[in-house]
């Protein structure tokens, strides 16, 4: 009887530890979202603060035995990568920082995967945002990012396809991980992104690159508002 009680007790402890780890991973992603929003607002003080909070949690959770064993033999490589991004970049280029955030979001994804979560609402949203950031860079670059038009069209189509996949993500799965999310606002921003995307695509038929900028910015603002709903603090 004592043996069974001990097994049950250890199982409860293990479950409690896993729940705490998942909460911390969710907090880590919240700090990444805050970093991204701060980047859009050019609020570099808050950006640095959010990254510091992310680093603290990442260093803590990367020591979790399940995550450490799952990520081996690359755990030390991940640590170096994360610490380098957080401490060594100059925080003065939007596109470069967005590439750093993409790398950090992949680290968060891998941690979740180690904990057995293979489908998560923000995974598609991050993918959508990083495709948008590449488009934003091209649209605002005088040399059009050295892209051929057909390459740019492929990127825009990829953006739309990813958006449609996010739109089809089951709401019950969002609610499972984010029970307090404001679904009225969520639907509003999803619908607004759809409208902005159509306006942006329409602008691409115009003659001048400068005609693409405002619709592109409107689309970015909508994406920023949507992902901010996923902050947990």
Characterise this structure.
It is globular and about 55 Å long. Helix 5 packs antiparallel against helix 6 and helix 7 (about 150-165) packs antiparallel against helix 9 (about 185-205). It starts with a helix and ends in a 5-residue tail after the last helix. The protein has about 230 residues and is mainly alpha-helical. The chain folds into two domains: about 20-120, Four Helix Bundle (Hemerythrin (Met), subunit A), CATH 1.20.120; about 125-233. The protein is about 80% helix and about 0% strand.
Classify the helix fraction into a percent range.
Answer: over 70%
As a percent range, the share of strand residues is under 5%
Shape label: globular
- How many distinct helices? 10
Count of folded domains:
2
Total number of beta strands: 0
Please outline the major beta sheet: none
Element-level helix/strand string? HHHHHHHHHH
Q: What is the C-alpha radius of gyration, as a whole number of Å?
A: 20 Å
How would you describe this structure in keywords?
233 residues; 10 helices; Four Helix Bundle (Hemerythrin (Met), subunit A); mainly alpha
